[in-house]
Design goal:
The protein is mainly alpha-helical and 214 residues long. Helices cover 66% and strands 0% of the residues. The model has no long low-confidence stretch (mean pLDDT 95). It comes from Alloalcanivorax marinus.
Length: 214
């Protein structure tokens, strides 16, 4: 077993969970509700807040029952603002509450509430998918990359996909800084977890622990 393979396994042992799984959104099912929840998590993570704050905010939206575009559309701006604020997502809660309304309207009007239509629109091209995602107000390069990183468990035509944060962490661990080379270190079914583990390592800054465990 190569050192790189051992290090990939150490990453999975320490941090092998996607952010969608932490959110409680079963994206692997490829159904409209979890895909929408992943989209608003990508929006919240795009703001200049810490990753754990974005997760708290997204989980609060989900726990409030706003799990689909129709349900979120029924919420008021004040309800969304207060929910985000109570979750600790305070500094940009008002702006994000507005962006959530815009995002929901766009999902409903362009995709009839089902992001699988965005998948069809992209037709297997990650650049087209990213361009489509960036049409949502509040989602830029970072948010689009987060969505594709997580959704590849359900949309395998985009696998292997690794975002810049994951590839940066891979470089720090002397792992390949290219998605296809990185994917050779683990089974295809666990690649999304590996990429998420790299991001979590970057956030925790526990590179030494990963090296020591390999």
């Amino acid at each position: 077993m190569t050192t790189q393979t051992e290090r990939a396994r150490a990453l999975l042992r320490h941090h092998g969970r996607t952010f969608a799984a932490e959110l409680g959104a079963p994206v692997r099912r490829n159904t409209p509700a979890p895909l929408f929840q992943l989209l608003y998590f990508s929006l919240l993570t795009s703001a200049p807040v810490q990753a754990n704050v974005a997760m708290h905010g997204a989980r609060a939206l989900r726990e409030a029952g706003w799990t689909t575009p129709a349900k979120l559309a029924d919420s008021t701006w004040r309800q969304r603002t207060d929910t985000l604020n109570r979750a600790g997502y305070a500094r940009v809660d008002e702006k994000t509450a507005t962006q959530l309304a815009d995002l929901t309207e766009q999902v409903q009007s362009r995709y009839r509430g089902d992001l699988r239509r965005l998948r069809d629109e992209a037709d297997g091209d990650p650049e087209r998918a990213q361009k489509a995602l960036k049409r949502f107000k509040g989602i830029g390069d970072t948010g689009a990359a987060i969505f594709l990183r997580e959704v590849q468990v359900a949309w395998p035509e985009f696998q292997p996909f690794a975002d810049p944060a994951a590839l940066s962490a891979a470089g720090r661990l002397d792992l390949p800084e290219e998605a296809r080379a990185l994917a050779r270190l683990v089974p295809a079914s666990r690649f999304a977890e590996l990429v998420a583990a790299l991001v979590r390592t970057k956030l925790a800054r526990d590179y030494k622990a990963i090296r020591a465990a390999a």
